[in-house]
Design goal:
single chain, alpha+beta, OB fold (Dihydrolipoamide Acetyltransferase, E2P), 5-stranded mixed barrel, two-stranded antiparallel sheet, 4 helices, about 45% helix, rod-shaped
Length: about 190
């Protein structure tokens, strides 16, 4: 069978090479073509994978079987659709939702002690660093009561709001103060 003056095997080969090359370019420069939350079938990675799978299956079937061209095309389209659905639901969809998650949750941050690395001015923002089980976290911080806090001071995280930590100076209690506090609570 001839399509556009080419044997069908060559058409499958050229399609495979072109789709593979465009896929590689899309991996490197795909952020430029961000379509937001459009229909998943319009995702360029899904379209490129469909063409690549279809061309590869068609080329393999044309060279390894004696099926006619229309049977090979039908099997290639169906196989490509199944592989494309598996790719989308098993790889692309979980990766897209994992990209928005962070390595830590902000809920357990209040009550932790951090170290000021960029001084916090009155009515301004600085930066604190705290150590968690996932590593060091650097976050924007401001004084809880709009107070200034110097660099290298320990602070207690009081509240987290809009990705900003509200902190106040932290002074650890010595042993005697802890005993007094425990007696007052009882």
């Amino acid at each position: 069978m001839m399509v556009f003056g080419l044997p069908i095997e060559e058409l499958y080969m050229y399609s495979l090479l072109a789709a593979g090359a465009v896929t590689v370019l899309y991996v490197f420069f795909g952020d430029v073509t961000d379509f937001g939350e459009a229909l998943p079938v319009l995702n360029p990675m899904v379209i490129l994978a469909f063409i690549t799978f279809g061309a590869a299956i068609g080329l393999l079937l044309e060279s390894a079987t004696s099926f006619n061209e229309w049977s090979v095309l039908g099997i290639a389209v169906m196989g490509s659709a199944v592989l494309d659905l598996l790719l989308y639901f098993c790889i692309l969809l979980p990766l897209s939702s994992a990209g928005s998650s962070s390595a830590y949750a902000e809920e357990p941050l209040p009550g932790q002690v951090a170290n000021v690395v960029i001084p916090i001015p009155v009515d301004g923002y600085g930066e604190v660093v705290l150590e968690t089980y996932t590593g060091m976290i650097s976050k924007r911080a401001t004084g809880y009561e709009n107070e200034a806090i110097d660099q290298d001071e320990k602070v207690l995280i009081i509240e987290v709001n809009d990705d900003t930590l509200y902190v106040q100076a932290y002074k650890p209690l010595d042993f005697i103060e802890k005993i007094k506090l425990a007696r007052e609570i009882q």
